[in-house]
Every structure is written in structure tokens, then in C-alpha cells.
UniProtKB/TrEMBL annotation:
Active site per database record: E247
Family label: Belongs to the aldehyde dehydrogenase family.
EC number of this enzyme: 1.2.1.16, 1.2.1.20, 1.2.1.79
UniProt KW Oxidoreductase keyword: yes
Enzyme class: oxidoreductase
GO MF: glutarate-semialdehyde dehydrogenase (NADP+) activity; succinate-semialdehyde dehydrogenase (NADP+) activity
Keyword Oxidoreductase found: yes
Superkingdom classification of source: Bacteria
Keywords attached to this entry: Oxidoreductase
Organism name: Novosphingobium capsulatum
Protein name: Succinate-semialdehyde dehydrogenase/glutarate-semialdehyde dehydrogenase
InterPro entries per record: Ald_DH/histidinol_DH, Ald_DH_C, Ald_DH_CS_CYS, Ald_DH_CS_GLU, Ald_DH_N, Aldehyde_DH_dom, Aldehyde_DH_Superfamily
Amino acid sequence: MTNPVHHLLHPDAFDAAGLAVTNPADGSIVATVRRYDVAALTAIVESADAARHAWAARTAKERSDVLRAWFNAMVENAEALALLMTLESGKPLEESRGEVRYGAGYIEWFSEEARRAYGEVIPSFAPGKRVLTLRQPVGTCAAITPWNFPLAMITRKVAPALAAGCSIVVKPAEATPLSALALEALAHRAGVPRDLFRVAPAVRSSEAGDLFCSHPLVRKISFTGSTEVGKVIMAKAAAQVKRLSLELGGNAPFVVFDDADIARAVDGAMASRFRNAGQTCVCANRFLVQDGVHDAFVAALTARVDALRVADGQAVPGAMGSLIDGKAVTRVAGLVEAAVGEGAREVSHGHDGPARGAFHRPVVLAGVTPAMAIAHEEIFGPVAPVIRFTDEADALRIANDTPFGLAAYVYTADVARQWRMMEGLEYGMVGVNDGLISSEVAPFGGVKESGFGREGSSHGLADYMSIKYCLVGGL
């Protein structure tokens, strides 16, 4: 295949003295890209604001057609995009292909939703008056995206912004800017005006965040990342009362009841916990397993984990790839060591993977209790801590004992219990008898300290639009 870096990116994206992007599987330099200081980023924001008016004035169909062309460009370049993502993030190539399909789905969805930004005609409160609402674009938007889903996190934010008639500037993660830059180039080739959607890698996220929070032309910020940083953005954006969408940390419980289909539950556990080596915000972070099936579940999960291959994401089909960098490996290893020190038992014998690169073996920990630190930390690595529980009330108490509320999972054959758990779990998303919940047709987002706002579905478009009430009198 042609080098995906040079095949997909704008020629002016590169700078030999810029930001070096490293392959975490082997430490090699994939590319060195241009980085933007505050002055350059300010100019980009101002150009984006100037470009949005003509874009918003286009018909919904015209905006829809351009987004559809962007979707088609992604599909045509799917394999190159997948390889590029694997090179910069370390995730297995099969997972990268899946993310390309998933990310493209958001562009396709919002290309269709662009035509459905309906207002309302409301029954009037008085003779001779008519009451109606219009839905209009928020304005110029800014997005800060993480490294774990470097392509889908862009399309989930940019596609609805463009569909609504907004402009948007994206600051991607320092570790994975290449997918974002490739999407930008494909969007421009598809007809998205250059100044309307810009990707600006920067050395310091804090500087970009400060600019987005303080610049008066930025009307909305969408951030995916840690709760700590989200709180800082929220506080700084309050000075100008900016619109916010925040998708922050998680601590997802994966609850398995005695009546669950254990084979199905283990399949879901593997998909949820070990996808992207456990580096997803919605992956199962705590496994809560009822007494009657606890030992059988642990044994079955451990057998699957011990069979996992750990390797370079390009090299071995079906393998688990690397973590994002050496710091992540050290952090995960420290969490495992601390849990064992508190009394947990490492019951798996997972492979360590190549000596070179940011790899960590997959781990199953038994004997974990809710009091242990690992039960409250977002692990972001291939570790499955298992907590035993007695009954439904016990499961709900343990599951909800966290300040986070992004995703939760429940396995049970009892339909009444399914409804009770769906309603009782304090989370923005609940998967019942399934470990993969994300889709462009559904609203993605959390509650409590996991943030607010929704991405995907019609709600994702609404987050980039304002409602204007209009009264027409004298009729």
C-alpha cells in the first residue's frame, strides 16, 4: 500500500521541526507534523468564524451532499485510514478497520440529519398571534479529542457541527494527530470549505484549551477526556457562558447475575474490557459477579484471557495491541501491583507481548473488594478486576458507588430484573446482555462526573443548535 501518511494528509501538514508521532508498538517515528502556537490557533479560529456564515446560509440539502461526499471519501480510503490509525495508536488493524466504519457512520448519519433540523409551530396563546421556533447553528465550535479513538472522536463532533451549519476547529491528542489530519484533508477534498473545519495539533493541550475558553468567537466547546481537565474547562468557559459538551471519565460496572448466559457474558466481557487493550472510556472497569456463577465466570474469563496473543497491531490477526505509551504501561502495572498488595489475586497467566514497545499482559484479578483502590480507578488498560456480590440490591449499591456515570452493563435472563437494573443504574448508557453499545443512531454520553451532552442520534445534532422562539403578531 502507498504510505498512508503521505497519501492522506495535506502536504503542508508536515514539518521536520514539528510534533513527532510515535508508533507505540515499536517506538519508531511515523511522521513529524506541523504544530500550532497560540497565535496561529487564534488566526484559525477567526478564519473559521468568518467562514461559517456562508456555510450556514447554504440549504440543508447542500450541506448534506457535502457531508455525504466526505463519507464516500472515507469509505474509499478505509484501508489506508485503518493502517494510519494502527501506526499512531497501536490498536490492532482489525479494530482500526472497525473504527473507520464506525466513524464514517457518524458522517453518513449526520449527512441525513442535516435535512431534519426541524422547528415548530406552537398553538398560539392569543388571537392574531403565531408562535414558532427555529433551530439555528450555535456558531463557531472548538473540539479537543483524545488518543484512544482518534478517528471516531473527530467524526462524532465535526459531522454534527457541519450538519448544523457551524464551523469547527479541532485540537487532536498529541499522540494521535494523523487520523484527524487525514479526515481534515478528505473533508476538504469532498467540498468542505478549508477554513470551516480545521485541525490544529499543538504541543500543549492547556494552551489550546485556554484559548478556546477565552476567545469570544468560540461559542461551543466539545471535550472528551479526563474529568479533572473537563472541570477546568467548565470553570474557565463559565466566564463567557459557552455551550459545552463534556464526555469525561468512567468506571463502568459489568454485572453478571446467576441466571445469566455465562458464555455470552464472557464474550461481552472480552469485547468490552480488552478492546483497544482496555483503553476505552466505556469499557467494563469492574466485573460484579453473583455468588452462584462467580467461580464459573472467573474460570471461563481467565481461559479466554490466557489465550490472548499480545503483539504489534499490524503483525498478528486477532492479537491485543499495545498501550499508547510507556507511561500507560507503568500506570497499569502499578494498579495491578497495588491491588495484589491489598489482597487481590492475579489468576490469569497472560502473555507479556514483545519486549520492545508499550505492551502489558492482559490480567484477571479475583478477590477484589469495593474498598480496594482499583475498584475506584479508571484503569485504561487490559485488567479485569472481579468483585463478588450477593443479590440485586448489593449489585446496584456497588455499581452506583462512584462519582462517575458513563456506561454500565448487565447480564441476566430475567426481563423484570433487566428493567429494574436499567432504571436503577445511575449511568448515561446501559447495555443489557451485550458488551458493545456504541452506535451513531444512539445518544452517547454520561451523567454525574462523566459529563453531559450527547453525541450521535438526533440529540447529537441538537447539541450544535440553538432554539430561537419567534412571535408573529398583527395577523
